[in-house]
Every structure is written in structure tokens, then in C-alpha cells.
Specification:
about 190 residues, Alpha-Beta Plaits, six-stranded mixed beta sheet, 5 helices, disordered N terminus
Length: about 190
């Protein structure tokens, strides 16, 4: 699951994905895209024959979600899970999305629980779900960077809490940990 690419490769992928022709292979270089956290498209960048601005975006991943949800339900029947791609939309001059550039795949798990203080069980579930993520085929998971798994443990609409487990951090420091030890590694009390 470790996929590390330098920033240069990411920019090259972003530029190449917005190009409708092999014009990027010429000796002329296009300016690097401007990235914005705003909800409006960023400053327009000319890439080949297309002017586009970049905007953070999410995209549903139905096939990944179906496989992930079923695997998690096999472990935790009271769960609902899905996956989304996080990246940037390349927005053309006409306001239409020219292309979506995936940066990472993120996973979400919502679990109905009878109590919100069973940290041993929650930690074991986190370990089990992270194993599911690790066994998903790499070609099924878009994006050059590792994402995260967001867990939401819900007793009721007013009694719940979440834990975000960055995949890279999990692989670096949490392998082999389970139960409350794993839970405590990622849970920050409000």
C-alpha cells in the first residue's frame, strides 16, 4: 500500500491528464497549475488548447465502495462503508469539468455500537478494517498518495465519535497493534 511519488510526478500527472493531445511532449513547457482550497476555480492555467482552473473535489468510487463495504460488513455487520477519491477537478473556461485528477482514495466506516467506551473492540475493528484496506488490489485504488480511513462509532445521533487513521502512519507505526493500544494511538479525546 506504500505508494510514494515526488511532487514533480504529481504535477506531471495533473498536467498530462488535462491535455487532449500529445502537445505536452513538445519542447514548450506549460506553467504549473495553481491549486486553491476555495470553492471557486483557481487561476486559469493554459494547458495545450485547454484553459483550466483547479478546484478540490471528491468523486464516488462505486466499485471500490461495494467491495470495501462487503468486506467490512463481513467483519462488523452493524457497519456501513464507502470509498471516495479526493483530488482536483480541472474546470474549463465554460465551467465544465474537463478532467478529475485523483490524489488519494479515502475510506469511511460508520459503525452502530451499543456503547461508546468499548475501546478494546474498537481497536480490534480498526486493525481488521486496515487489513481489508491493505488487501484491496492497488489497481482498484486510484491516486498516487495514501489516504485515510475515517471511523465513526455511533450509539445514537447525539452520542458518537470519530477516529481518522492515516494509512501511511498506520503502516509506519501501528502494524501488529490491536485493541485499546491501537485505539489509543489514533484517538484524541475532545
Amino acid at each position: 500500500m506504500h505508494r510514494f511519488f515526488p511532487a514533480l510526478l504529481l504535477l506531471t500527472l495533473m498536467l498530462g491528464a488535462c491535455s487532449p493531445s500529445p502537445s505536452l511532449l513538445s519542447t514548450e513547457t506549460a506553467p504549473a497549475p495553481t491549486i486553491s482550497l476555495a470553492t471557486e476555480p483557481a487561476t486559469l492555467t493554459s494547458i495545450g488548447d485547454i484553459n483550466c482552473g483547479y478546484q478540490w473535489a471528491y468523486q464516488d468510487l462505486p466499485e471500490v465502495s461495494a467491495r470495501f463495504d462487503q468486506a467490512v460488513k463481513n467483519l462488523i455487520p452493524s457497519s456501513n462503508s464507502h470509498a471516495t477519491a479526493f483530488g482536483e477537478n480541472c474546470i474549463g473556461n465554460d465551467g465544465q469539468i474537463v478532467n478529475f485528477l485523483t490524489m488519494e482514495t479515502d475510506f469511511y466506516v460508520v459503525v452502530s455500537v451499543p456503547s461508546t467506551d468499548d475501546y478494546e473492540t474498537f481497536g480490534n475493528w480498526i486493525a481488521d478494517v486496515m487489513q481489508v484496506v491493505d488487501t484491496l488490489p492497488e489497481d482498484l485504488i486510484p491516486g498516487p498518495m495514501p489516504g485515510f480511513v475515517q471511523f465513526q462509532f455511533e450509539k445514537s445521533t447525539s452520542e458518537s465519535f470519530g477516529i481518522r487513521v492515516p494509512i501511511q502512519q498506520y503502516n509506519e507505526v501501528a502494524q501488529g497493534k490491536t485493541g485499546k493500544e491501537l485505539f489509543d494511538l489514533f484517538y484524541t479525546k475532545p
